[in-house]
Amino acid sequence: MLNNLIRLAALSILLCLYSIEIKAQKKAWYAPSKIGFLYGYGEQGGDFLNDKDYHYTSNLIKVQIYYLLKPGKFDLELVFEPTVGLATHQLLNEHFVKPTESDYLNLREEFTQKKNLTEYILSTNLIIRKKMYKSLSAYVLLGIGPMIISERTERLAKGFAFAEVIGLGLTMKVSRDLYFDIRGGYRHLSNADLKLPNSGINTANINFGFHFKF
Questions:
Q1: Which residue in 185, 197, 204 sits closest to 45, CA to CA?
Q2: Comparing 44-58, 109-123, 156-170, which segment has the lowest mean pLDDT?
Q3: Model confidence band, residue 160 (pLDDT cutoffs 50, 70, 90)
Q4: Residue 158: exposed, middle, or buried by beta-carbon count in 10 A (0-12, 13-18, 19+)?
Q5: Distance between CA 139 and CA 64 in Å, rounded?
Q6: Is residue 1 pLDDT above 60, yes or no?
């Protein structure tokens, strides 16, 4: 996990240096309009989602790459969001694993222990943004992307899956090129029945951070 954080920090520094270089040159068509960095926290078993069968939390570290698709009364933005999630999982209701499953007693023993997982996600998000005041805007976010999850649970197989998100956020202008962003939302992890099990993992999420305008 520490190595993953070091790699992400290095990527963040490289992106900052890249943004400085781009601003010093004529902006190319492929250059993003903004780059951002977010921290997020997601939980199943809290006030908003409280499935009694399991508990799941995830600390999310995100890099954001923004492209303005269509400015107007409502801005339309495309955001690529590479994410590393450091998660914990625990099965609370051992009877979720049925006796009809092969080796069900060992599975119950495995999943009722707290387990650490790592999520690797490349989310593609669409944002519809409305300017509320001179320095404040609100937005709706819809996103989906492929992911790799490092460990199996009783609800989701190890390996390839998808992350789907929906969120509502506020962005406040701090200075000419610096913005503070806060977003709440819902996330669903599943593998589209490519593997079993696939009961899915759901979390309520809060994210906050900054993005920089080019």
A1: 204
A2: 44-58
A3: very high
A4: middle
A5: 15
A6: no
In the numeric block, which tokens belong to residue 112?
């009722």
**Average confidence (pLDDT) over 141-152:** 96
The model's pTM is: 0.83
List the chain domain ranges.
Answer: 2-213
- Mapped onto helix, strand or coil, the DSSP state of residue 96 is helix
Instruction: List CB contacts of 136: < 8 A, sequence separation 6 or more.
Output: 170, 171, 172, 173
Please, what is the average pLDDT of the chain? 87
Sequence-ordered list of residues with C-beta below 8 angstroms from that of 65, at least 6 positions apart, any chain:
15, 32, 35, 79, 80, 81
Q: Which fold is adopted by the domain 2-213?
A: Porin (2.40.160)
Alpha helices, DSSP H, located in the chain: 2-23, 104-111
Nearest-angstrom CA–CA distance, 172 and 197: 42
Residue 213's beta-bridge partner residues?
A: 34
Tokens of 141: 């976010």
20: helix, strand or coil: helix
- Report the distance separating Cα 21 and Cα 27, nearest Å: 10
pLDDT above 60 (res 7): no
Quick: pLDDT tens for 174-205.
988 899 999 999 999 999 888 889 999 999 99
At residue 193, the 3 state secondary structure works out as coil
What burial class does residue 143 get, using C-beta atoms within 10 Å of its C-beta: 0-12 exposed, 13-18 middle, 19+ buried?
buried
Nearest partner of 64 among 36, 31, 41, 85, judged by Cα: 36
